[in-house]
């Protein structure tokens, strides 16, 4: 799975924050819900338009960003 099929950045949607394609749900929203203790099933129950694959794509996106993070110094 590649997250690029599920996540897009559009300056007209949520001020250009990475969002799940076709929604206004930001990757940061999903990560916050997971970090706050919600399960994938609970998120899908609250947002039935989301799929397990979209939520997994958010995690892959975050992991990829973390891998490429560099601290200047």
From TrEMBL:
InterPro entries: DUF433 (IPR007367), Homeodomain-like_sf (IPR009057), WH-like_DNA-bd_sf (IPR036388)
Protein name: DUF433 domain-containing protein
Organism: Hymenobacter jeollabukensis
Lineage: Bacteria, Pseudomonadati, Bacteroidota, Cytophagia, Cytophagales
């Amino acid at each position: 799975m590649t997250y690029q099929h599920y996540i897009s950045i559009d300056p007209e949607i949520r001020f250009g924050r990475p969002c799940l394609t076709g929604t206004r749900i930001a990757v940061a929203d999903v990560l916050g819900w997971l970090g706050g203790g919600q399960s994938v099933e609970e998120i899908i129950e609250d947002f039935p338009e989301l799929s397990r694959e979209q939520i997994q794509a958010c995690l892959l996106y975050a992991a990829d960003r973390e891998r490429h993070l560099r601290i200047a110094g």
